[in-house]
Model the fold of this input.
Amino acid sequence: MGNFAEPRHKEPFTDAGYEQVYFIDAPQVAAMTGLALEEVYLQLDVAQPGGLGVIPLPQLEAGPYLSYGLQWLAFGIMAPLGLGYFVWAELRERRKTQATATDDQTPPDASDRLAERYGRPR
Done:
């Protein structure tokens, strides 16, 4: 085991009603809690008396992240395809309008083009 020194320059603080420390410092924790602690620290089992509080282990399961990632992948593929379809449909309609305009010598006005594309009002 290597000998390492933790920084001891930050004071404890209170946040959301809980006193907290930045690092494990037995004298600092002893001063905050009023308990007589040694200079060293050990990890206690859950059933062992003398613990200041049991901190649960973080969840290590994968969760829903794979399906969420697949949804974004599907969206990333479908979005450019949808954009391409709408560009293609718009170009097709413009070509159709242009072809009918050259067949009729009179260019259609805006209401004729909208009626051709979306139908006449009922």
About this structure: Residues 65-103 form the longest helix (39 residues). The chain has three helices and two strands.
